[in-house]
Design brief:
- Keywords: Aminopeptidase, Hydrolase, Metal-binding, Metalloprotease, Protease, Signal, Zinc.
- Its cofactor is Zn(2+).
- GO terms for molecular function: aminopeptidase activity.
- Its EC number is 3.4.11.2.
- It is an enzyme of class 3 (hydrolase).
- By secondary structure, the protein is of the alpha+beta class.
- The protein folds into two domains: 308 residues, Immunoglobulin-like (Sandwich); 141 residues, Orthogonal Bundle (Neutral Protease, domain 2), CATH 1.10.390.10.
- It has eleven helices and 24 strands.
- An eight-stranded mixed β-sheet has the order 7-6-10-4-3-13-16-15, with no helix packed on it. The protein has a four-stranded mixed β-sheet with strand order 2-5-9-8, with no helix packed on it.
- A hairpin with a 2-residue loop joins strand 15 and strand 16.
- It is globular, with a radius of gyration of 23 Å.
- About 5% of the residues have low confidence.
Length: 479
């Protein structure tokens, strides 16, 4: 995710160009059937994700009505039990009308607005694969969770996008990045509308006045990265110079005088993906692309394979969201406290891209950033522990900007060659999975051949500006 910088957002609002914005706790030994926990692994949002189950595949089928804002759905989830289960939980805000487990009716209830408790007809054995089918419906815009009301829609366009929570507004899930799965998503809307989603478009079937579009993502994906958009879009398709297919969409409802600029910026997607691949190793997915919505949104989001942007799209935000395909999508956080691995790294790739295309070098960026920030060594910029920022601060500026500065200092400390090796090793070792800050620190020390724990403590956790020493990747004290 890249939120608009505060100053830029204020300016764009004044111009009318911008607006708003389950993992498993496995039982080590088998035992009597238990109630799968409605708690996930993350203290930031304890209700995100659920215990006792591992989601493998989501088959999501939804119908959306633009006039009423009502969404009805049928989602089939292929899961594996990680405990002997007499019941299980899923995360879903919308009302439920029916549930089956392996084709047999199951009892269910909503003990809270965010949780769905399912009791199958028979207990499920640890290690057993099973399929739970949930039928549901309601107005997503009517529901809130964790202080968020995330449904982004008007009477002509809808985009299901947000972070860290989005799935419970439109499909049941284990809603935590540590429980990835593959996806088939079918969206039924009026036949005059187009639907864009993750991965590859499998097909489109017209039936009377409506049409169903089928998108498929075969690489493991976190729930918050699953999205669909429906509206009136201009589509661009092709292949990058290295052969990666791309699929771009620009809302036709954007002002006509803005559309040429927006289209030109979005077209950079293919070349930027190729450049990132040259630096980080093979692109982790089958396709790339992006979508620009006409809806007012104050952030861009790295939906897997196809980031979404607002009308204010600019070149470096494209670099940021595409860098997330490696840092955040292919290699997802294991806990939300690890968010620096997403945002700091994507921001650092903006720095790398600028340096490779005529902008300031990484060393110049480090010098200027250090000079600008070190004069207030105990300011809020430095006080935030970006290795554990807390749920209220996961998207604060230091996570992005100080995060990128940390990586620039790390490169200065270990050398550009070692930094390239480190980043390529990180995304290769954790491809399709998850990672933690502690794992990255250990890998960095291994690649560098020196203990870097003091470096990371100083930059990430100390609560003050690091001392200006070579061990911290710095050449000079504050001016």
């Amino acid at each position: 995710m890249r939120r608009l910088p505060r100053i830029l957002l204020v300016a764009l609002l004044a111009l009318g160009l911008a607006g708003t914005a389950g993992a498993q706790a496995e039982s080590p030994t088998a035992g009597p059937p238990v109630a799968g926990s409605d708690r996930g692994p993350d203290p930031y949002w304890p209700l995100d994700g659920n215990g006792g189950t591992d989601a493998r595949h989501y088959d999501i089928r939804v119908r959306y009505d633009f006039g009423t804002g009502r969404l009805t759905g049928r989602t089939a989830i292929t899961m594996v039990a990680t405990d002997d289960l007499r019941s299980l939980s899923l995360d879903l805000l919308l009302p439920v009308t029916g549930v089956t487990v392996d084709g047999r009716a199951a009892s269910f209830r909503k003990p809270s607005k965010h949780e769905l408790r399912v009791v199958p007809a028979h207990a499920i054995a640890q290690g057993q694969q099973f399929k739970v089918v949930v039928r549901y419906g309601g107005r997503p815009a009517a529901y809130g969770y964790a202080g968020e009301r995330n449904w982004l829609a008007d009477r002509a366009e809808v985009v299901a996008m947000n972070q860290p929570h989005m799935a419970p507004w439109w499909f049941p899930s284990n809603d935590h990045p540590s429980d990835k799965a593959t996806y088939d998503v079918r969206v039924n809307v009026p036949r005059g509308k187009q639907v864009v989603g993750n991965g590859v478009r499998v097909g489109r079937k017209i039936s009377g006045a409506r049409a169903t579009t089928h998108w498929r993502e075969t690489a493991p994906m976190a729930t918050y990265l699953a999205f669909f958009a429906a509206g009136d879009f201009a589509i661009q398709k092709g292949r990058s110079a290295s052969g990666i297919p791309y699929y771009n969409a620009v809302s036709k409802r954007l002002p006509r005088d803005q559309q040429p600029r927006i289209t030109r910026v979005l077209r950079r997607t293919a070349a930027v993906t190729d450049w990132l691949q040259s630096r980080l190793g093979a692109y982790p997915f089958a396709t790339t692309g992006g979508l620009v919505t006409s809806l007012e949104v104050g952030f861009a989001l790295e939906n897997q394979t196809r980031p979404t942007y607002g009308s204010w799209i600019y070149p470096s935000v494209v670099v940021h969201e595409l860098a997330h395909q490696w840092f955040g999508d292919s290699v997802a956080v294991r806990r939300w406290r690890d968010i620096w691995l997403n945002e700091g790294f994507a921001s650092f790739m903006e720095v790398q891209y600028a340096a490779a295309h005529g902008g300031p070098s990484v060393e110049q960026y480090l010098d200027s950033g250090w000079d600008a920030a070190c004069g207030t060594p105990t300011s809020s910029y430095w006080r935030l522990n970006i290795a554990d920022p807390g749920p209220a601060h996961v998207f604060d500026d230091p996570v992005y900007d100080r995060g990128a500065l940390t990586l620039a200092a790390l490169q200065h400390r270990i050398g550009a060659g070692a930094m390239t090796t480190l980043l390529r090793r990180w995304v290769s070792d954790h491809r399709g999975g998850n990672g933690t800050i502690e794992q990255f620190e250990a890998l960095a020390s291994s690649v560098a051949g020196v203990d870097l724990s003091g470096f990371f403590d100083a930059w990430l956790r100390s609560g003050a500006a690091p001392a200006a020493t070579a061990d911290h990747g710095l050449d000079h004290a504050c001016p």
